[in-house]
Amino acid sequence: MTNPNEPTTERLTQYWLQRFSLDRSRSMDDRLKEMRHIREEWMRAISYWSVTGRMNPDCPDCFLDGSVSSDASIQVTALDRHRVITRIYDHLFRTAAAWTEECMEMEGIGSAPLSYVCVWFGSGGRKEMTPWSDQDHGVIWEDEHGWLQARVEAYFTVWGETFTSLLTQLGFAPCSGKVLANNRQWQGSITEWKNNTGRWMQERGWENTRYLTMAMDMRAVYGQSELAKRWSHSLKLPPSSLRENVASALTANLLHRKRAHNSFGKLIRERYGEEAGRFDVKYRTYVPIAQLARNTSWIVGNTEQGLSTKERLSWLLEHTIEDGALHAAIHEADQAWEAVLECRLKAEGYQEQLQWQSTGMIDPDRLTPALKDSLKASSHAITKWLKWLERRYLHG
What we know:
Layout: H1 6-19, H2 28-52, E1 54-55, E2 74-75, H3 78-106, E3 116-120, H4 122-125, E4 137-141, H5 149-169, E5 187-189, H6 190-202, H7 206-216, E6 219-223, H8 225-233, H9 240-252, E7 279-280, H10 281-300, H11 309-319, H12 324-346, E8 349-352, E9 355-358, E10 361-362, H13 369-393
Parallel strand pairs: 4-5
Antiparallel strand pairs: 1-2, 3-4, 3-6, 7-10, 8-9
Helix pairs in contact: 1-3, 3-5, 6-7, 6-8, 7-9, 9-13, 10-11, 10-12, 10-13, 11-12, 12-13
């Protein structure tokens, strides 16, 4: 199917990719200052566009600045907006990784002793970042010989710190859960990563299962992508005797969630604190569907990494036709997914200590009746989908 907005969004993407591509002959300090300045411009422009979906095709750097009427602007879907954001942020992360290598050379540490790959996790791995998303990443390197181990670990300790610092200076807040390449838990040789996967599958527990699901969202962003593919092989379906246990664990981890609607069908607002009265679109709708699509895809047989939630939903719709109840729940979630993404972008974000953050909260009174109905429909779909998994893998 032809996307009528593709020429416009492509022109917009190319405009910003060109803006973010700086001359490497300039000093690192100058490039960082300039890149930070351009990102400030990008955030001013993209924030309004992300929330409204409207842009001025003749003014890609201002999107819709009031100089034209809304009739002259282009309405872009939430899925298309996420595609633009993904391409821009992939470029920024690759630039930061290349600059990290440059910094290592300038500091006399030298080039990487072994081939490696930097990978996304979380929404970055799923290609679903918002303008205000933080940084979730890790690093995988080729297996080292024994005498090289100390040198390799020392190199990537500095690499991880430098990479995380550069992204922080560009306004990407470090992941609060410390899923970062400067954390030894999220860096290691390909053998270490494969061993981790095996342990996460075999040793039951909420934390190990959580790490396993994070691995399912991994996507290579810079370096030797072949290393990421080799690690992904360890995520292939295990023997049937272990597969049922993993499926049960994946289902059990989904039970801890915030419900989106009450028994009267009303969206549940936060009751306390600064967010009182607002709706948590991130953890009541977006995250549950993303988790259900990811975990169910793996259980059904799709172990491919780096897929978006929409790609997983589409795959599941093709491969669950024989089970009417499950297929119906997935279909309902898929129908509501565009609205969920729309509301997630409307949640906006804020800046704190020169870094952008996302609240994931929205005032339900700002939503149209259609969006409210879609959120309620997604909530019902989540409940039905989860009940099917419970019956099959926890009470079967």
